[in-house]
UniProtKB/TrEMBL annotation:
Associates with the EF-Tu.GDP complex and induces the exchange of GDP to GTP. It remains bound to the aminoacyl-tRNA.EF-Tu.GTP complex up to the GTP hydrolysis stage on the ribosome. Residues 12-196 form the Translation elongation factor EFTs/EF1B dimerisation domain. The keyword Protein biosynthesis applies. PROSITE patterns: EF_TS_2. One of its GO terms (molecular function) is translation elongation factor activity. Keywords: Cytoplasm, Elongation factor, Protein biosynthesis. This is Elongation factor Ts. Pfam families: EF_TS. Residues 81-84 are annotated as: Involved in Mg(2+) ion dislocation from EF-Tu. It comes from Desulfopila aestuarii DSM 18488. Its main location: cytoplasm. Belongs to the EF-Ts family.
Length: 198
């Protein structure tokens, strides 16, 4: 199939990948736009895995303050070089992550950051709900296990659906940025401030 410049442009607009990467993805998938998107996402995962061990000692602080000044977030993003830290794409990603945190209020960055007491409290609530509804004890554990896993996924930043594109998780978006930048990038920490909240 003939790969046109318009097809390459459309894929680039959709994925923000490089022009040559888009052209190669379309060639590999015989011009199928959806398969080309998947091809680029898999490539992003491969780049992210290859770069994962690299130190991220440079970076930036992304800040988002919601209208009215009652809610604000600061997030630290790390990267390998000062050059990448100063790019518009990197700074914009930091702002997007800060905005996402303001909107969704994650408990931690990864599953390991979710306090065990919080998980235990949620599990207890789910067990009591299931028992009160008359479910047999054998089924309760399986039901509760699924609900607890869903709670953890919704509480940790990397597994949350990205507010600007619910088709992607924050981890997916991070992988895309790593593939585009060609450097390891990490979300190191965040703080969310809300007037009147403890």
């Amino acid at each position: 199939m003939q790969i046109t410049s318009q097809m390459v442009k459309d894929l680039r607009d959709k994925t923000a990948a490089g022009m040559m990467d888009c052209k190669k993805a379309l060639a590999e998938t015989n011009g199928d736009m959806e398969k080309a998107v998947d091809f680029l996402r898999q490539k992003g995962l491969a780049v992210a895995a290859k770069r994962a061990g690299k130190a991220t000692s440079e970076g930036t602080i992304g800040v988002y303050v919601h209208a009215g000044g009652k809610l604000g977030v600061m997030v630290e993003l790390g990267c390998e070089t000062d050059f990448v830290a100063k790019t518009d794409a990197f700074v914009d990603f930091a702002k997007d992550v800060a905005m996402h945190i303001a909107a969704v209020n994650p408990v931690g960055i990864n599953r390991d950051d979710i306090p065990a007491e919080l998980i235990a409290r949620e599990k207890e609530i789910y067990v009591n709900q299931a028992l009160d509804s008359g479910k047999p004890a054998a089924i309760v554990e399986k039901m509760v296990s699924g609900k607890v896993d869903k709670f953890i996924a919704e509480s940790c930043l990397m597994e949350q659906k990205f507010v600007k594109n619910p088709d992607l998780t924050i981890q997916d978006k991070l992988n895309e940025v790593i593939a585009t930048m060609g450097e390891n990038i990490s979300i190191k920490r965040f703080s969310r401030f809300q007037v009147g909240a403890e």
